[in-house]
Amino acid sequence: MTVNLKRTSRAGSDAEPISRRKLLGWITGVGLVGSAGLSAISNFVFIKPRATYGAPQRFSIGKPDGFPPGTRVTLENRRICVIREGDRLAAVSTTCTHLGCIVGLSDTGFACPCHGSRFDTDGKVTGGPAPRALPWYKLSLAPNGELEVDKDTEVQPGVYLSL
Amino acid sequence: MSQAANPKPSLLASLMAFPATIWDSIFRNPVPSNDLERSATTFTNFFLHIHPVKVHKNSLRPAYTLGLGLISFWLFLILIVSGILLMFYYVPSTTQAYDRMLDLRGTVAFGNILRNMHRWSAHAMVAVVFMHLCRVFLTGAYKKPREFNWVVGVILFLLTLFMSFTGYLLPWDQLAFWAITVGTAIAGYVPVMGKSIQFLLMGGTSVGQEALLRFYVLHVAVLPAVLMLMVGIHFWRIRKDGGLSRPADADATPDMVMVDPSKAVLEPRKTYGIQGLVRGPLTKVGQIPDNTVYSWPNLFIAELFTFVITLSVILVVSLLFGAPLEEPVNVMHPPNPAKAPWYFLGLQEMVSYSAFWGGVGVPTLFVLGLILTPYMDRSPGGVGKWFSRDRLLANTLFLTFVIANVIFVIIGTFFRGPNWAFVAPW
User: Global pTM?
Assistant: First the structure.
């Protein structure tokens, strides 16, 4: 290989062959920038937890006898409201669909203290900034006779568990 | 000196030379006693060389700058010192954090006043940084060549807000928990990446131990490091961009007229510099009005004065008013109404109309508008003057946004009651 003593012009016209120096420069540059990018991505992979320590999503709330007909009661540590009308039972979320505050029971259904969202007794939005109705969770009767809530599975509002 | 004559000074002579030799090795210059020596010291001292040796008179006018940038920096300094001290007693744990707050209040010597100082300085810094931003806008100081420093300033304002946001989870009281629950939920409304950002911030699906640890690390390590770097760039750019902005007529020079060199009557056997061919004053030095004064003492006194005033006000406020501490976290009961600190109440008020537009859309547009301001408003007029006639449109637009936000803050603070319903404050 002969060494090109002439200085290659900076603009580098199409016809001009790429000098060895320029090629090595590009390879080094791509390598450095690439490694920096990969390091940055691995940092984000690192800070994204693989395991979280949240509360369980499926849990028992006790026997149906604990909720006499006409009950509307919030289970605060589970963030749900259990509704019983006659022999029909339902579990409605009490986490506001707006920004995650906990809604409280009000005369007309539910009300959020943070930004004033209001819901009717079925969790449908009646006012305020909430974008969606409060979700209803799947409620089932376990073999041991206790009610089990599955917060990973939503059901259509109005779908009750009939005893 | 005798030492200079003696190439190998005796131990006794070396001991006798204390402490002057140590002083010389550190400072190079003697304690300055005239302008020349003061200039040399300003130039060579690490802590002083951030200043120019001479500073324009206009930069020292209190009515022009109101000292807001400096006050922001002094507040940041108070926050660093008080924050580091508080770290000696704080534990970022959901079971201990609140107890540590009570310890600071009850048992730690000076614990209460340090926490008060940290909290009130943080509030003050948000306010003063914002006022500084307003000052720079209203005097047109963001214009060329200071466009980029304006952008750095906007980033500093956002960092200040983010510092205060991460800071108020740390006491682990009711305000902390619910403000962060709401704040991270707002991040969740960001298109496409929202849920990932929310998950990364909280380190899980709800605000708990992981979130507390993450906010702690952001608050005491990541954000201060970034903030200090940006402050460094901000200050460096002030110098590189030609000092503080000032009106165009602040640097007036007398007219000088070039003469045709071929017609100039030159003496033989004499060399002429280019200045020799200028009619009128032969050299600019000493001929044009000097609008600069020495930084030492003029600027340094002003800096010291603002620092003393800032620290005194923070101290007095911290002695008189305790930093709020609400009930310990109760993850089941948001306080009713659940209110963010005053400077986020404008945001909270907007969020109560629409989570996306109030929490993400409008703030993003506002910040983008701020950042792009110097690149869109490129007319050179009205720099260095408050409320210049040339800038009537820009200032009116800006003030409209500011006043709108202030009104939202006032509504959120005084006119919102339980369940965020309208109430009369009286």
Answer: 0.85
